[in-house]
Design a protein that fits this description.
The protein is built from 16 helices and 13 strands. It has 2 domains: 243 residues, Alkaline Phosphatase, subunit A (3-Layer(aba) Sandwich); 133 residues, no CATH class. α12 packs parallel to α14 and α13 packs antiparallel against α14. It is globular. An 8-stranded mixed beta sheet has the order 9-8-10-1-11-12-2-13, with helices on both faces. Strands 3, 4, 5, 6 and 7 form a 5-stranded antiparallel beta sheet that branches. It has 408 residues and is an alpha/beta fold. The two termini are 22 Å apart. The chain binds zinc ion.
Amino acid sequence: MKYIILVGDGMGDLPLSSLDSRTPLEAANTPTMDNLCRQGELFRLQTIPPGMPPGSDIANLSLLGYEPQDFYTGRAPLEAVSMGIELAEGETAYRCNLVNLEKNGPDSLIMVDFSAGHISTAESTIIVNELQRQLGSDLFRFYPGISYRHLMISKNSLANLVTVPPHDYTGRNVALYWERYLQYPELQNMLETAWKLLENHPVNKKRLQNGELTANSIWLWGEGKAPVMPTIEEQFGLQGSLISAVDLLKGIGIYGGLDIIKVEGATGYLDTNYGGKAAAALAALEHQDFVFVHVEAPDEAGHQGSLPDKIRAIEDFDSKIVKPIFAGLQTMENNTDFRLVVCMDHLTPISTRTHSDQPVPVLLYDSRQQGVQSGLSYSEKSAEKTDVLLASGRNFFNKLLQRDGETP
Ligand SMILES: [Zn+2]
């Protein structure tokens, strides 16, 4: 038996008046997901445990069978491990976004863009390496990642610093949160120097000339120390692979004991190499029983509040990920049976441009056509009709592996 989980990050949404009260997922043309859903089971899953923040880190831990309340220490340490960065005892990892802030004065600091205009990796690598050269020290180390997503490791724990994710504050005044950093003298010093350095940086001057947003500040968030967690094999006896463009997901995969498959041209955005991801998933299933494929683009479109991009991202996910993987599974050697999940980690509604913690719709297709056939298309509203709500990632994995009877 093969097990496949296909995740459209942030694909869920709320009904929009511009779509006659439909969601982007309902409005998008998604024939493969809808067919699989009609012939499969449909249910809802609470990926965000009550009281925890609705992030992709926590939600994807749930989609990999974990109960995040037991293992989650923060987002940045998961990203660190995927970048090959070891955290020493006592060290804390921070996500270090390159952002664009509109600096109007001490009381007005607007988060224009949490991604510095989706700055390219080539540009951001130059900037972050420069930050390390000029500001790296015993206390702080900077590591370049992909696009706007980078890391800073702090030797001190900066106790009691409460940070906020910049994508939750797009277009909003973040002066209050910036103030929090400045309460730590070592951090204040570093951030102010970084500010000056970025202001005059050649990469930013060039971006300005090209009419692009500059990376005029860093934003620290998602902090945590290294987590201690069992692998998926230890928990469920399953070995497999994970495919994602996003360091966070790769980090979860590494802690989960999965093989991380690198796909050339996987960008985490609309221009990602869908074909390469689908082919890599099918190749992995030739020698493994489990594969987890994560596609970031719908979430990015949700954060940008772009309805056309979100619909396109969902349609691409259907036609370029779900469709070819399903087709490939059907023609696998020896007619291998499979259980295929299509889901999302959380909603990223266009209207709020940030994540929400509602349960997500999950479709589960069994090649043996066992069990219930929902008869419903794949959407948020359809899933509500089914009245099945799983409370945790562990419940979800027990269902996927048909261990429903086992007590956790
Ligand atoms: Zn997101």
